[in-house]
Predict the 3D structure of the following.
Amino acid sequence: MDALHLAIAFYYKISLITADEGLAASAKVSGVPVQILRL
C-alpha cells in the first residue's frame, strides 16, 4: 500500500506525510517532498 501512496504523490506532485521512516526514505529517493511525523 505504501508504494501506491508514493506513486500517487509522485504523479500528482504533492507532498507525502508519514510516520513510516522507510516510506519517508523512499519518498526522498524518488524526489517526492515528505514530512515525517514524530510520534
Observations:
- Residues 2-36 form one domain.
